[in-house]
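Can't paste images in this forum, so I'm doing it all in text. The chain is below; anyone willing to post the predicted structure tokens underneath?
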Amino acid sequence: MKTEVKRNLDKTYLLIEEEGIYEEDYQMHMLRENKIPGLLEVRGRGAGENSQYYYDISCKVSMKTKYEKIPIGYEELKAFLYQLLTVMKEMKKYFLSENKVILDPEFIYYEKGVFFFCFLPRYAKETTNEFRHLAEYFVSRAEYQEKECVFLAYELHKISMQENYSMKQIQMLMENRLERADGTAEITAEGVCYRGGNIG
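Text version of the structure:
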């Protein structure tokens, strides 16, 4: 997988190039015809025997860059998890596989309280394995001045190290935390927290 950032007068794009002839399959059709909250807008094309995907990252910063010099606080970590779970829930409505979302801080983008994810049609890595590495990243970047943040990061890491764990366990962890807070909430694609519903 090759990556490059391209800019023109008014847009910035992340270019991902993969080996294999480009195919305009149902996944690209779904992504083109539907604006799925939390997924970066993408367009694809062929380049000889390779496939190229352009993601609009205008005004956005990667998670890797955002937290390179500052730690992740509890509220931001919690918001990220809700948004990730919400995106995966939305993807199911369009028959898009969660295993094609790149869970690497370099490919997760942030803008005004909202995290955005790259859906790569030719990607084929298990979400649980990808999230395991992400959990390790959270442990290393957690704000150690916030006890709740440290506890949450280590809870995520503990779950991800279990054999044959599932993302449902992450969902249950977050729902249990909400119940302990005496309420329920969901982070929407716009980053708004509201009470009265569960993620599932």
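The CA atoms of residues 77 and 144 lie 13 Å apart. The radius of gyration is 17 Å.
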